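re the bet — no i am not wrong, look at it urself. input seq straight from the record:
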Amino acid sequence: MKCPRQPEDPNGVFKTTNFVFLNKPDDGTCDQCGSLLGDTLMARLEKGDVILGPTDKNYKVYVRNKGGECFKQTHRIDNSREHNLDGSPDQTKWVWQTNDSQECKFYFQHLTDEQKKRFVELLNDKKIKFDQPGYFYVLPFFIKNEK
């Protein structure tokens, strides 16, 4: 999967177009940026077992567990400290570790157009729960505030 955030990468985190971790366990997160996937977020919002923690950014929100299953956050750890001839870490020595987490991040770029529409419906129907202060500081980039 190509991360939808890749074209917006101002810091050069995604240096190659085919950057994908091979054999990463399916934990409901993006292989590249670590965000929850759109399907994962929407399923949890529909269940009502998460709360959103607003940020001052229009592209990101924190998702906190509220009675549902813990999030599975998978990351690579390198126990070997072995390196290739060019000095880069030996990728064959990296192992996956999955931790349970009560909070994770979500980047709105991971929503499809249909998911964005459904998100707005849930928001308008007040079915999305928020941590303090109880609303978005800044609306997600795909929502227009009509007064």
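see?? The CA atoms of residues 122 and 128 lie 6 Å apart. told u. also Strands lie at 50-53, 60-65, 71-78, 94-101, 103-107, 129-130. so pay up
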